[in-house]
Here is the input.
Amino acid sequence: MESAVRNTECGESQDFAYNVFARNCPSRGTLEHVTGRWGALTLGALHEGTLRFNELRRRVDGVSEKMLSQTLQALERDGLVHRDAQPTNPPRVDYTLTPLGREVAERLLTLIHFMEGRMDDVLESRTRYDETRQA
Here is the structure.
């Protein structure tokens, strides 16, 4: 039954049972969670180690409390983040990457570091593009 659901929702793919290019494939939602602005930054920050909510919020500069909470819930649901709520007063909640989350974060960090290293080229391209549009 599961493979029938996969084929119906995800279309045919030569290499994988899931196909992110198919509209209804669940892999698309996970890709959005991982590659969205807050998902990528959250995973990258958690790669450094276990963080509490407010530590994470400070590390991911600019994220609102609501967006960080939604992002963490989505990443936890996808099995990328583990939430450890300790019954203390006040409550303590720690977030850490799961083994799958660590693997995803490492791949994202490769892209992040690549982009940071090539930003001079990107900024130069933006300037050229903007100059041709203003002419």
